[in-house]
Design a protein that fits this description.
The protein is of the alpha/beta class. The protein is built from 14 helices and 17 strands. The protein folds into four domains: 140 residues, Response regulator (Rossmann fold); 127 residues, Beta-Lactamase, CATH 3.30.450; 48 residues, no CATH class; 149 residues, Histidine kinase-like ATPase, C-terminal domain (Heat Shock Protein 90, 2-Layer Sandwich). Helix 10 runs parallel beside helix 14. It catalyses: ATP + protein L-histidine = ADP + protein N-phospho-L-histidine. Its EC number is 2.7.13.3.
Length: 579
């Protein structure tokens, strides 16, 4: 047995363990039904210190109290436990409770007993997961110091292992979470959240990004730093001290751990730089720092993933826009092809109509010319009288004129149906133009003893194509001469009010029936009335007039009191350019 001087004296009148203000303390529990053991233990360990940390001693005087104490303080590092208390196995039952129900595997248990035979050492240590076994008679101050130190160091190592395992699990879980972020700001917020979880401590943090330029951007902030979110660092929005720390971290380009502040520097594969600054409530342990460094090494991939996702999203957007543009271009091209196909169909139909007209309307004047030419040949051979020869020549000339007129009409209609035809608008004096058309048609009217009267203002300017309008007015006037009786009157009248110009052609001819009015301006439409001097008609003139007037943005109408009462054709044009 050890000397009595080495035996731990149980002093009843002892003060509680003095506290070291501001330092973290090892928390140990003394569970024994002997009050003197509690007081002696406090006295012996009053000046105990390990790694700069003192002790916080908690007491329980029975197995039941020990259960409540252990349940309420899961951070107890070591337990000095008596075996026999309210029952012979109360201490061992408490060990089973700690290990099996609380599942606390890190707390170190030092079993102290005054009756070693009651709890054999070898069996108890093996069966009950006891870390140390001491008889109260051998537990001197030095032995207590040695046993407690060994227990606390063992606890510290286990805690580091548990923290490391927990931290690695968090890092593994965080990696899959952080790699799923598609937004740089959401990723930054996730980094701060995961760091706080990894350290298991409340902390204020800020994450600053520096892109290829020198501009700094605060992507996320927590705690007292949340007010800086989204602000450029160089604009003066950050506090001067904070900005200096961030800029110094970018210059230093490495991690820094100082007191309660942690600075992480991360450089991504794409050249971006990130600084994470954390202000924790406690100084980080070596284990915490190692875990933070491991966590930081994974962030480069996460930030590059976000950048690559953003680039891929932009590329997809551009590709979608290009596909949409190409689709629109193809749609427009298809529309143009469809329009051209319709125009080709119309052109082909028009060609067939022209061929039919040529075969039908040109056949008669050609027959007249051929027949009269043969007769003229016979008359010349028989030396017929001059008057007979002249009469045959007149017939040939008349047929030729009619043939020429029909060809002119066909050419005019073909020009009006040309798909690339354009109207050249310029100021035109319609009054003067109508006068010129009237003068050009007077010889034909005089041959039928008809009178053309013209009523126009001194000047009437209109924006139009003079050649096309001359053609339209000439068609109306030539029709009036053709269908008016010999000796009839034809009137040309021009009116204007500044907004519109109105041209009227009135005759005393056969007039128009309701059926004529219904189909008047269609192509190749023949009227019920016949020309009064045997003139020919292709049925194209009025359709050409309508086409020209429509292209000018105007309209043409016809009116007649009835058959035998003449008719009036009216052209209305806008005086200004039609947009």
């Amino acid at each position: 047995m050890a000397d009595q001087d080495d035996i731990l004296e149980l002093i009843e009148d002892s003060d509680s363990t003095p506290e070291v203000s501001g330092a973290r303390k090892w928390k140990i529990a003394v569970i024994d039904d002997d009050i003197a053991v509690h007081e002696g233990t406090r006295f012996a360990l009053s000046d105990y210190s390990l790694n700069g940390q003192g002790l916080e001693i908690l007491s329980a005087y029975s197995g039941a109290e020990g259960r409540e104490l252990m349940r309420g303080n899961p951070d107890i590092a070591a337990v000095l436990l008596d075996v026999i208390m309210e029952t012979d196995a109360a201490g061992l039952d408490l060990v089973e409770f700690i290990r099996n129900e609380l599942r606390n595997e890190t707390v170190r248990i030092i079993l102290r007993t005054g009756q070693p035979g009651q709890a054999p050492e070898r069996r108890v240590i093996v069966d009950y997961d006891i870390n140390d076994y001491k008889a109260k008679t051998e537990l001197t101050a030095d032995k207590l110091f040695t046993s407690l130190t060994a227990a606390l160091r063992s606890y510290q190592q286990l805690e580091r292992m548990v923290q490391t395992r927990r931290g690695l699990e968090i890092i593994i879980d965080a990696a899959s979470t952080l790699y799923d972020f598609k937004s740089m700001q959401r990723l930054a917020e996730g980094v701060l959240t995961q760091l706080a979880s990894l350290l298991n401590v409340d902390c204020a943090g800020i994450l600053v990004l520096r892109d290829s330029g020198e501009e700094l951007a605060v992507l996320a902030g927590s705690g007292c730093y949340s007010r800086f979110i989204g602000t450029p660092g160089q604009s003066g929005s950050l506090d001067p001290d904070l900005r200096q720390m961030v800029e110094e971290a970018f210059r230093r380009r490495k991690h820094e751990f100082a007191d309660h502040r942690t600075v992480l520097y991360i450089r991504t594969g794409s050249g971006r730089e990130v600084v994470v600054l954390l202000q924790a409530e406690r100084e980080l342990s070596d284990t915490d720092r190692s875990l933070v460094e491991i966590f930081g090494s994974r962030l480069s991939i996460a930030f590059d993933n976000v950048i690559l996702y953003r680039q891929l999203h932009e590329a997809n957007t551009q590709l979608e826009e290009r596909v949409a543009q190409r689709t629109r271009a193809l749609t427009q091209a298809n529309r143009r092809l469809s329009t051209q196909w319709l125009r080709l169909q119309r052109a082909n139909a028009f060609k067939n109509e022209i061929l039919g007209t040529v075969a039908h309307d040109l056949k008669n004047p050609l027959g007249v010319i051929l027949g009269r030419t043969e007769m003229l040949t016979e008359l010349i051979s028989a030396e017929a009288p001059k008057d007979n020869v002249i009469a045959q020549v007149d017939h040939i000339r008349d047929a030729t004129r009619r043939l020429t007129l029909m060809v002119d009409h066909l050419i005019s209609d073909a020009m009006a149906d040309a798909f690339d035809i354009s109207i050249r608008r310029e100021p035109v004096d319609i009054a003067a133009l109508v006068g010129e058309v009237a003068e050009a048609n007077r010889p034909m009217a005089q041959n039928k003893q008809q009178v053309i009267s013209v009523s126009t203002p001194d000047a009437c300017a209109t924006m139009c194509d003079s050649d096309r309008m001359r053609e339209a007015i000439d068609n109306l006037l030539s029709n009036a001469i053709k269908y008016s009786p010999i000796g009839g009157n034809i009137a040309l009248q021009v009116d204007g009010d500044g907004d519109t110009t109105v041209i009227r052609v009135t005759d005393e001819g056969a007039g128009l029936s309701p059926e004529d009015l219904a189909r008047l301006f269609g192509r190749f439409q023949r009227l019920s009335a016949k020309p009064t001097a045997g003139e020919s008609s292709t049925g194209l003139g009025l359709s050409i007039v309508k086409k020209i007037v429509d292209m000018h943005g105007g309209h043409v109408t016809a009116a007649s009191p009835g058959p035998g009462q003449g008719s009036t054709f009216t052209i209305t044009l806008p005086a200004a350019t039609v947009s």
